[in-house]
Amino acid sequence: MNDTVLDALRPGAVIGIVGGGQLGRMLSIAAANLGFRTHIYCPDADSPAFDVAYQHTVAAYDDYEALLRFVASVDVVTYEFENVPHRAAQVIANERPLFPDAEALATTQDRYTEKSFLRDLGIPLADFARVDSIADLEEAVATLGRPSVLKTRRFGYDGKGQVMIRTETDLTQAFQSLLQQPSVLEAFVPFEREVSVVAARSRGGQFAAFDVTENRHENHVLRTSTVPANLSASASKEALAIARKVADALNYVGVIGVEMFVVKDGGKDRILVNELAPRVHNSGHWTQDCAVTSQFEQHIRAIAGWPLGSPARLGRAEMTNLLGEEALDWRKIAAEPGAHLHLYGKAQVKRGRKMGHVNRLKPD
Amino acid sequence: MNDTVLDALRPGAVIGIVGGGQLGRMLSIAAANLGFRTHIYCPDADSPAFDVAYQHTVAAYDDYEALLRFVASVDVVTYEFENVPHRAAQVIANERPLFPDAEALATTQDRYTEKSFLRDLGIPLADFARVDSIADLEEAVATLGRPSVLKTRRFGYDGKGQVMIRTETDLTQAFQSLLQQPSVLEAFVPFEREVSVVAARSRGGQFAAFDVTENRHENHVLRTSTVPANLSASASKEALAIARKVADALNYVGVIGVEMFVVKDGGKDRILVNELAPRVHNSGHWTQDCAVTSQFEQHIRAIAGWPLGSPARLGRAEMTNLLGEEALDWRKIAAEPGAHLHLYGKAQVKRGRKMGHVNRLKPD
């Protein structure tokens, strides 16, 4: 379906969104604002995105009957997370345009495939090796050294599915802690800072990137994003060029998040790509209140075949995630002049769970 | 219920909204953004607000069984239009907090009651007289002169339910054209321009007004709103003071729209109040993209017992309504850099129907 020339989606059309978390919720709101309806597909009956959707389906990703009914009810399909099973993506793409397409999804949902793709494209990234067995791991550690990081190829997020290989680490235990799943060993990167580029590419190949964002993580979970990043002009330019090269090579349609490390190389900032997210990205949430177009509207515009909006920044921005009980501070944040509070409507407060975020805009 | 001391509404609470048009839709989106759920009540099965609501009820306003079920499912109730029948408002207010309250609603949904309230408060407005019969009309015209404007006390909007009394107008015919409904005759105001104040008052009496907005109507329907209004500083101050006085006198909770005429009086701008809208107001739509807090979020904050947000303006703003077929220009507007397009998801394009609006922000 994706190779045919598609008309722009008309207001009133229904956008299918696979995944019902906060990203699906904010996508649904952005879609409604442009006159679209959304149908959210998610196995979890308690999905935050259902609250703001025209329609929703609670079903497993391998319930192909439900999936086909869902697909038949919508005009285009997108997703809010990269772990949509490949078979489900194919079932969808056989019936309706899927953006980003099944190939972009397949490339980015598997760490080894993704890293190989990036390497083949000439994108700078840390050395890595495929690990399918203890023997592979031993060989990889011999090559890449310690410390290094062992990560499962699939389903990892927020530090889950990874283990640090230190001097004292027992390799067998480490591999077993990841349930011996197909994995990748990455050379450790002694980075100065973490940054990301959130960018969009339209069906026609138009590209628009938001300014490079600097990200601070705590316990592997994003804590704050600030813009502009503390980065040299040339490194910033390089980061944006990398995002464009990646999006073009994937023939990508939609918003993509490119996570990067900044390393000091003889006093110069050098960029290494860490990973790709084929979707709107937590580090782009500041765009809701501090950019002309939000990443959510931008994604909807891209997949709808509309022209992209301006990614211009309105000032200095800071986004802070509200994790677990921090969201109980809503009263204080709501009283703070100029703080833009966003809550996801999640009933259960769990330790470390992303419950909301707050955007703060300051004059440039 | 409104006299008891109420706690602030917690995220996750359900806000009931009576009326399912575009205002209800945009309120629902704003509520979701703060972590609330909404339940929309509307007799029209095709209501734009349903698309973004957690729950909706299709039932008549005098279906008290349905109304009670609706009320039982929510934590607080508000409305998006002033023609909620008084009895329905009372049924609601008996069970749950209703904001703005039933008294504010009763005062503002009847032109004669509203004008009497304003006059008693010492607010400047055009002379007016109550008209219940042809004899009343003849007497009123003898006093207020021609031209003057005859308007039904209730259910008028966008120029509907009103007739101009000119030199040649036959009074019997004029009154009959309004189906001899209880009406008000207003002295004609040769205004320079029309402006409005959109403001909010919190449960605790905190007041926050957006800047005075200048409004241009065509065929009695709002065409554009621009901010700041072309108005002297003293007149602007007076306009804001009037809005505050009105809100305080009504012990108002929520966003209120105060429509005003500006007349030249010996070279000086003088303000006359035209009418009140006990709800978010079309002339406040610019706040979505051009103010720190939108009028929709501000209304939700007020009725939820949250602190009001900053009403500060981000620059010069212009809002243009998209009426009828103008909304078919979405492609062109979407391609305009920096134009913020909002579409209401209305399936049927009708001549003059409000289909959406576009906000444009320029540096101050």
Structure in words:
Two copies of one chain form a homodimer. Chain A has 364 residues and is α+β, with helices and mostly antiparallel strands. Chain A folds into three domains: 14-98, Rossmann fold (3-Layer(aba) Sandwich); 127-187, Dna Ligase, domain 1 (2-Layer Sandwich), CATH 3.30.1490.20; 193-362, D-amino Acid Aminotransferase, Chain A, domain 1 (2-Layer Sandwich). Chain A is 28% helix and 29% strand. Chain A is built from eleven helices and 17 strands. The first copy, chain A, has helices spanning 22-33, 64-72, 86-95, 102-108, 111-120, 134-144, 171-177, 233-249, 287-290, 295-304, 330-334; strands at residues 14-18, 37-42, 55-58, 76-79, 128-131, 148-152, 162-165, 183-187, 193-201, 207-209, 213-218, 221-227, 254-265, 268-277, 316-323, 339-343, 354-362. In chain A, strands 9, 10, 11, 12, 13, 14, 15, 16 and 17 form a nine-stranded antiparallel beta sheet that branches. Chain A has a four-stranded parallel beta sheet with strand order 3-2-1-4, with helices on both faces. The first copy, chain A, has a four-stranded antiparallel beta sheet with strand order 5-8-6-7, sandwiched between helices. In chain A, strand 11 and strand 12 form a beta hairpin. In chain A, helix 2 (64-72) packs parallel to helix 3 (86-95). The A-B interface holds A 8, 11-12, 25, 28-29, 32-37, 50-54, 292, 301, 306-307, 309-310, 312, 314, 327, 330-331, 334-335, 337-338, 341-345, 347, 356 and B 8, 11-12, 25, 28-29, 32-37, 50-54, 292, 301, 306-307, 309-310, 312, 314, 327, 330-331, 334-335, 337-338, 341-345, 347, 356.
